[in-house]
Amino acid sequence: MVGIIMTGGDPDLSAWRRQGPDIIAQRRAEYDALLERARRLMDRRRHAQAVAALQAAANYAVLWHTGQFTDPRIEAMLRRLGRQALHDFGPGRPPRDDGAPRRVLHVATELYGIGGHARMVAHWIRNDPQNVHSLALTGQHHALPQDVADAVRDARGSVTCLNARPGGLLQWARGLQTLMARADIVVLHVHNMDVVPMIALAGLENRPPSMMVNHGDHQFWLGSGVVDLVVSTRDSGRRLGIDRRGITPERSALIPLCLGARPRQMPRNAARQALGIPADAVVVLTIARAVKFRDIGGDNFVQALLPVMKVIPRMHMIVVGPGPMPAWQASIAQVPGQVHLVAETTRTQPYLDAADIYLDAFPFVSITSLLEAGLQGLPLVTRSAYGPDCGVMAADSPGLDGVMLNTGSVRELRETVAMLVQDGDHRRQLGAQTQARIAATNTGTAWRDQLQALYRRAEDLPRNPGILAAQQGMTDLDLFIPFVFDDPVGLSGSATIRVSRATQMVLKSAPPAWRIRQLLAISARRDLAGSPLRALIPAWLGTTLRRRLGREL
């Protein structure tokens, strides 16, 4: 193999270990104050305001890690709010006759065209044709992705956008309860901080079995004290749920991420010609949302592979997601014409058609993109730089395990990529093995059989009593998360800006009096992002106007 000059680029984990405890302690104090604000409102039975305050606390815990992946206090408050404000003694849906289709209600906060979240919902529904699938949305501000809308229509179901109805969080939760009561089973695909489905479930005395897809397994989330079964799509997320979220093993399940067929649109050389890439190039592709390309350890994503591209000039990188990235331009200039940056797009197939190797995003891995690239027959390379305590910061998933090349240091990454670039036979053989493994694991009859078993398991479980198991203490994972996953405001902003941002996110869904009071406080601290007039527009009204005007407000 051609010799590669090695330089730095690994994150400074020792510095993160020194700085992490103080960061976590400060954030915990800020979060606790937000939780206390919600508790006081609950004690005064100001339920609508308490829900908004609790939503702000949950927002904070997801955006800025507080050293916990769930909080028994907030889980108890969700159950209490549901019982006090939304207690429903209705009889629930009668038992389903043997052989009759299940009525499955999927609940999501918001589904986007970019990223794998919406595609998993669509693939789930399409791979379960014997049942009836409906979708409820608690915060959909953009047009629903067409593949999701089509899947629900073909499954004989309906789509309900709760946040287009007048009111706020509490009213939407009450509307969701009505939909839940008609379902045989509820599947949550919600954002980690969404309080609406949790208080809706908690208030139903005779609620249907519920499952939650653990798609945000690297962050804090709500629901471990409410939902009956937590469904992970990778083992690292399942283990973290048991160790750090108080989930008992019998309430924890694993199922591969469901994929759909994505046939090649054009031959490799034709795809390269369309993209302006030489026919004899070896193309290394990465696809991820822009947020997943944070620069750490002194090197940006492109810079880490500069030594390889300098020694092997026929290696080209296509990075779909980040867009122009001014901070990367000095690195790109060192290998003229070899790096191609593309903004976020739903049209990723031409880039997959042109590629030879798929390289995972870093420092924030992208599991869906890895699986979809592997299903195209590309060999997969990822990087796990954080150590044994940090499984959810790395890439793993049924279908990937055993075929994906997992590198540790930047040195190992460069050596692995260089080997694949230079050894075409090995590259193609590994790609074929990867494609076969993923097809057998993440598609077809095998996946559908696992889904039916998952339904039966949720139906057989008693409803969640809200008692969490003991949780393990903090590890390196907690100390590293602020530097890799957290909102950048958490590293450089003041305490008031973080609290203000977490609160501002819920203003449009909050009761008017609380909304105005909090808006005045945020403005007085000079923390307001955007126009105060826009912050006064209720969420339901903004959603309705967007639909009518066909644009974003």
Task: Describe the 3D structure.
The structure is a single chain. With 553 residues, this protein is of the alpha/beta class. It folds into three domains: 131 residues, no CATH class; 187 residues, Rossmann fold (3-Layer(aba) Sandwich); 175 residues, Glycogen Phosphorylase B (Rossmann fold, 3-Layer(aba) Sandwich). The protein contains 22 helices and 13 strands. It has a seven-stranded parallel β-sheet with strand order 3-2-1-4-5-6-7, with helices on both faces. Strands 10-9-8-11-12-13 form a six-stranded parallel β-sheet, with helices on both faces. Strand 9, helix 11 and strand 10 form a beta-alpha-beta unit. The N terminus is likely disordered.
Contiguous uncertain segments of 5+ residues: 1-8
Number of helices: 22
What radius of gyration results from the CA coordinates?
24 Å
Q: Say which CATH homologous superfamily of the largest domain is assigned.
A: Glycogen Phosphorylase B
Return the structural class: alpha/beta
Sum up the overall morphology in one term: globular
Quick synopsis:
With 553 residues, the protein is an alpha/beta fold. The protein is built from 22 helices and 13 strands. The protein has a seven-stranded parallel beta sheet with strand order 3-2-1-4-5-6-7, with helices on both faces. A six-stranded parallel beta sheet has the order 10-9-8-11-12-13, sandwiched between helices.
